[in-house]
Design brief:
With 547 residues, this protein is α/β, with parallel strands linked by helices. 41% of the residues lie in helices and 16% in strands. It starts with 7 loop residues before the first strand and ends with a strand.
Amino acid sequence: MVKNLRPRIVLSAVASQYVHSALAPWCLKAGIEQYALTACDIHVVEGTINETAQDVTKRIIAQAPDILGISCYIWNIVFVCDMLPRLRQALPACVILLGGPESTHRAEELLRTCPQIDYILAGEGEKPLAQLVDALHMRKAVEKVPGLCYRCGEAVRTQPAYAHDTMQPSPYCGDYFAQLNGRIAYLETSRGCPFSCAFCLSGCREKVRCVSMERAQCEILLLAGSGTKTVKLVDRTFNANPARARAMFEFVIGEYGRGIPKNVCFHFEIGGDLLDDETLALLSTAPPGLIQMEIGLQSFNAETLFAVNRVTDITRLIDRLQRLIALQTVRVHIDLIAGLPKEDVKSFARGVDRTFLLFPQTLQLGFLKVLPGSAMREEEQKYPMQYDAAPPYRVRSTPWLTQEELVTLSVVERALDRLYNSGRFTETLKWLTQKTGETPYRLLKKAGDAIILAEKKAGTLSLEALTQVTFDHMIGLYPEHRAQIRDLMLIDRIATTATKLIPLCLQKTDNRLALAKATLNRRGLGQKGCRAVGILYSVETPLLVWA
């Protein structure tokens, strides 16, 4: 029951990092403003899990809410549950409700174990939250609010997750832009997914709904002009409708340097095998840096893809990825998931090799998360595996992968992130995989072992220490390529590091270097941002390089 004539509502979200802005609270705010009959004062309070729960709680309490809604995800549910006792103690009369995927699929458990929670809204919340606000304010029964889960005496009543038939009001308002402050901006032009992958929640029970092209274009320009450097579209498979996606890409490319500032990047999650010739031709005209594509390849194993209900034409997918990457106009991020059914370590290693040799800008090796609400979680007999009981529910072993083998894959992941995805030594790794006969997987495994061994002794490695460890390791493996490895690592470092200092392990005493620097300065290159200068010796004639 809410007694105030004009209820104060706080909608809160806790991100994993400050750079990630929240979208859900603003969607809910827009829903209340459009659908609720009750006039309300609505405030959004954001935080991060890197703060203390006490600090975020204080900001919420300072708003003195009558109704508090908190969005819950795998990265913040533990943090949120830590806040609840403090919130209830300070706000005894406040109605506290949770929403979001993590509370949707754990509604009964959370209501039984967290007495501070009054309600959980399962599924999409714009209309249901507005109806709940009206019911609480008008002292009416709440049972008919769709998706509402609550206690009834000793029992807990749950409802199926609610999904709207159409897209909901735009979340972008003056207050949103005032709080954005240059962080990553998120844009939703569709909800739902036409696919039903067993490890994912996006295709569960939801049809695909899209905003109009006019609204999407308007919001693209609003976000692009907000001061953010990255606009990330959260559509689960952006090109599920290839013609619609192509029209959106064409708009973004056409507005580059006009309505879209030249320093803004748009990030799309797409199905690689859904790329058609027309879209690839269009993307070939994209200005470099404008568009980034994230492609969930997940696995090359046909048995694995079938087991998780994922329909993929592998031959077509590889062809489209090769063509997309060859354009060099779009930054390509490819995901693989370790721990999926029917995939052993040898199969996964082959997948790493095939993906790496496509040379995307980013190759993310992720580990399966057995999410509450996913088919993989609900059909335990079909998907037998061990996983962590606490979020993020990471797989620990499967009938095809032992715990020790998953640890080995985490070593490969470490090398990928530090040496390749960071952009620090991409050319060095590419050359080594092409010239030494070593597979990318084995090369990364050995490099990861060296990095982790060094980290056990010295903690997280600085860039200089990482360079030294990597150089020593690589020339130890391939002494016959010492000169080439030194030159390639020098090129990588000069190209990616804003410093005039050459790492000690890559330095060589050469009187010609001072002369070269003086020549560059006389020509004005030094004053124009020339950071570092070096000489390559693995070529027939020593070659001067600088950046």
